[in-house]
Amino acid sequence: MKLSRRHLLGSVALFGTAIPFQLAAQPSSSVEKDIISNNSGALHVLEGRERLSLDGAWHYILDPFDVAGRKPKARRNFWENTIETPATGLIEYEWNSSPRMMLPAAWNDAEERLDYYEGPVYFRRLFTAPIEAEKRHFLHFEAVNYAATVWLDGNLVGRHEGGFTPFSIEVTDCIRSGTAHSLVVRADSRHGPKTLPGLDFDWKNCGGITRSVSLLSVPRNFIRSSFISLRNSQIEAAIEVDGDAGTSVKLNCPALGLTLSGSAGEDGKITLSAPAPDNLKLWSPDDPHLYNFTITCGNETAIEQIGFRVVEVRGREVLLNGKSIFLRGIAMHEEAFGAKGERAVSEAEARALLAEAKALGCNFVRLAHYPHAAHTARLADEMGLMLWAEIPVYWEEIDYSDKGTLALARGMMAELVRRDSNRASVVMWSVANETPQTPVRTRFLRTVIADVRRFDPTRLVTAALNKNVDVGGVRDGESIITVQDELAADLDVVAINQYEGWYGKRDPREIKQVSFRNGYDKPLMFSEFGAGAPYGNHGPREERWTEEYQAWLYEETLKIIAETPDCVGLSPWLLKDFRSPRRWHGRFQELWNRKGLTSPEGRRKKAWFVLRDYYRNIAVPKG
Ligand code: GCU
């Protein structure tokens, strides 16, 4: 069955595509121009929206050589779900006798034998849904790593590329009430220079349907997205209706005595605004105040929880609600506490990670290096933590000159920004981590930054830079290090990753010889620093890999950070040890990056207390 225009609009094939089929044709220039507001992308999974969960047991078939993808043949077209009969001839698979996996999960965590498997896996489940004819129905995926291809009853209905952002596929035309439908999803976790991340990255590549799957049912005219924010003392709601022009929309917030209503324009867009009431309570880490809003469109009423805050830059300061703030941060990967460090993180597991950051005294968390689950930002709204959210444009093994890869980055950023635009906790969008300083890279990222600025002027834009240049010091052995990366000109906050005392020749004793200078009239923050130490490995502080060495490095680094002019914050690397296939040291790493302040299970290392005490005691005049 040929994909109809409606399918394409439903799915995000526009901005991404998958293995085995060649990269979809690139979007035409007009669409390219405004990629975020044109990204119909994923529906919002809102409280009050009709949702049938498709999580649970799915059968799966491995195809390590990608035979079915490269050489489709009736006897191995897993997506066709064919049952062998004399008429079909040999069928080389049988779903009902194939192994099962409880989803969502990373297959690496769910099956020991798939611990380091990279390649295509096909998943299938049957489902029957009570379908109301007058409604529209979307298959919604919170995340599939890396490239997803989706079939319903043997028909291709959509594709998506990108392992950490949601996508929705409209299946209104092909779904029947009370009928058992066969849903097959191919997830291919392979990476290359044209994927994001690219060929090399320092975390475990966990493949599969790693976040929830559901069937969303919405009225013919429905709210595809809403962006409610405080701008220039106005409460503004940018709403997008998918449906007929003139569709009425109503926003209501009883706590504020606020009701806004209007109807959608030709393009489905509508902006409602009203002066912010005098008694508006602003959201901040110390007082994470949230307001309940109901959004009504047709006969659907959904609920959103909104915190109002203003985050901005003034010279070399970051202001939150007009007051200068210091970002007491920590970086973290999306890996649950536990001996296995599993990827698919439940709400409870995300809460445990954020609670550990709070216990450290943090008011800020860098979510590295890819979009974490949607519930993490909702929890941060509630718990009072500001967030740095990032897309996996990471390191140098990416083809920055490739148009398709650029479209992918723009699509991923669009999906992330649209998913979390209503999260007060998200204060910074990061477009990259430690990327090569080349003109083609800079052009690539400037395009993504322009998209973000056009769509969301309410947040700061940053990137983690590591092109640190030692301009020498006054005395022998001294170093004055500045960041010299042309991309900094495009950022609101200059963030640097530096590993003095770990990578490079210096040990912690010599860190005091280093000072950092901010060459830009912008706020500067330290987005990474750290040292590796397995929990419980003790010894003289001069000995690398000991907790004492890690703690010492923190003590010395925090001293020079405190002396760095215009430093607005830090997010040391990182909260918890995490799995990585490029950590080979047999005694100290065993495929774990040991720079965590806690062990995989959450046991606190010495350096944890150094940072906690620093955050407790920093007499920060600001915020
Ligand atoms: C880099 C990188 C991290 C990595 C860390 C490390 O700076 O951004 O992803 O894990 O260094 O080397 O431990």
Automatic annotation (TrEMBL):
Record's Pfam families?
Glyco_hydro_2, Glyco_hydro_2_C, Glyco_hydro_2_N
Superkingdom to which the source organism belongs = Bacteria
Q: Which residues form the Glycosyl hydrolases family 2 sugar binding domain?
A: 53-219
Record-annotated Glycoside hydrolase family 2 immunoglobulin-like beta-sandwich domain positions: 224-309
Q: By what name is this protein known? A: Beta-glucuronidase
Q: Which residues form the signal peptide?
A: 1-24
- SUPFAM superfamilies in the cross-refs: (Trans)glycosidases, beta-Galactosidase/glucuronidase domain, Galactose-binding domain-like
Matching PANTHER family: BETA-GALACTOSIDASE, BETA-MANNOSIDASE
UniProt keywords, alphabetically: Glycosidase, Hydrolase, Signal
Entry similarity comment: Belongs to the glycosyl hydrolase 2 family.
The answer on whether this UniProt entry bears the keyword Hydrolase reads: yes
**Xref: InterPro entries:** Beta-gal/glucu_dom_sf (IPR036156), Galactose-bd-like_sf (IPR008979), GH (IPR017853), GH2_Domain-Containing (IPR051913), Glyco_hydro_2 (IPR006101), Glyco_hydro_2_cat (IPR006103), Glyco_hydro_2_N (IPR006104), Ig-like_fold (IPR013783)
Glycoside hydrolase family 2 catalytic domain residues are: 311-618
